[in-house]
């Protein structure tokens, strides 16, 4: 290996999901929550075949206008819709000006973390992960419903949707329980060639699994996708890593599997939380020289930015 250490993400990197099934379930769960808990009566509760084409990573929701924007790397609005209704170029210009730019997404172009907190977080959100991008479609459908009911205030759609997403990913939620009870429908088995590759990789470098997911969830999914004893593929497993803060905040302590704070004395083992700086220093000490490392994930911004 060209590296002393190779670290892998878990969801959508090592483990692959049946995205079509997952998106349909995401949509039905989130829409049901809005209908039953937030009184979005009349909201479409099941995705149709055409709806899946609306789902893409990196779309921006304009909370106040009820729009969904697709922007270029330079910040120019390429396409836009109001709810699910596509806007013409002229309509985009009327809303966002002749340069077809939005000052809020311009902040994102300058600083990829600008939208996660502060005033801008009240204006927009973009989904960058397969675990939540169906939320963009639910947002758009909710806007469609409000328009049908001639309700022009869209301000609560995002707060309500965010509550639904948080509820969906509770460990005890019906969503989580259904996924774990029907894993063949939602989670692919890992290819045997990938597992052979992991074995060879471990022989030539330190192999780490660094995931933001909790150990209870990871263990059950990994047993299905990789088989029992999957832990033996790795020198190091770190659960509940608060990425990207794991790579940027040196003050997050490591915990053992019983949630007790601990100091990392060996890079080999099973841990929770923690930070890259302490892990790297430990590997550096073990090697007796600077370590060359690489992290492989599915979202640069949400994993390591």
UniProtKB/TrEMBL annotation:
Q: Name one Pfam family in it.
A: 5_nucleotid
UniProtKB keywords: Hydrolase, Magnesium, Metal-binding
> Out of the domains of life, which is the source?
Eukaryota
> Would the keyword Metal-binding be found if you checked this record's keyword annotation?
yes
Looking at the keywords, is Protease present? no
- Molecular function terms in GO for this entry? 5'-nucleotidase activity; metal ion binding
User: Which InterPro entries did the record assign?
Assistant: HAD-like_sf, HAD-SF_hydro_IG_5-nucl, HAD_sf
| Similarity comment: family membership | Belongs to the 5'(3')-deoxyribonucleotidase family.
Q: Which PANTHER family match?
A: 5'-NUCLEOTIDASE DOMAIN-CONTAINING (PTHR12103), 5'-NUCLEOTIDASE DOMAIN-CONTAINING PROTEIN 1 (PTHR12103:SF38)
In Swiss-Prot or TrEMBL terms, this protein is called: Putative 5'-nucleotidase domain-containing protein 1
């Amino acid at each position: 290996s060209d590296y002393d250490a190779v670290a892998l993400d878990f969801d959508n990197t090592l483990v692959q999901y049946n995205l079509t099934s997952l998106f349909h379930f995401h949509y039905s769960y989130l829409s049901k929550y809005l209908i039953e808990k937030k009184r979005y009566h009349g909201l479409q509760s099941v995705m149709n075949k055409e709806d899946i084409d609306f789902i893409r990573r990196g779309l921006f929701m304009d909370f106040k206008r009820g729009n969904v924007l697709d922007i270029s790397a330079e910040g120019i609005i390429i396409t836009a819709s109001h709810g699910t209704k596509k806007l013409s170029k002229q309509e985009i210009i009327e809303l966002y000006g002749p340069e077809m730019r939005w000052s809020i997404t311009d902040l994102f172009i300058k600083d990829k973390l600008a939208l996660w907190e502060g005033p801008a977080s009240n204006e927009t959100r973009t989904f960058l992960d397969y675990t939540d991008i169906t939320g963009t479609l639910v947002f758009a459908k909710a806007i469609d419903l409000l328009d049908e009911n001639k309700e022009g205030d869209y301000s609560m759609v995002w707060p309500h949707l965010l509550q639904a997403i948080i509820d969906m990913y509770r460990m005890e939620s019906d969503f989580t329980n259904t996924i774990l009870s029907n894993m063949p429908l939602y989670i692919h088995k890992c290819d045997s060639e990938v597992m052979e590759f992991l074995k060879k990789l471990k022989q030539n470098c330190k192999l780490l699994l660094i995931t933001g997911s909790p150990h209870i969830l990871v263990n059950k999914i990994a047993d299905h996708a990789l088989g029992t004893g999957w832990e033996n593929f790795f020198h190091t497993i770190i659960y509940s890593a608060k990425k990207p803060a794991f790579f940027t905040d040196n003050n997050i302590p490591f915990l053992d599997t019983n949630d007790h704070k601990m100091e990392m004395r060996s890079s080999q083992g099973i841990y929770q939380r923690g930070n890259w700086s302490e892990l790297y220093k430990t590997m550096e000490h073990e090697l007796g020289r600077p370590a060359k490392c690489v992290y492989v994930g599915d979202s640069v911004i949400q994993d390591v930015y």
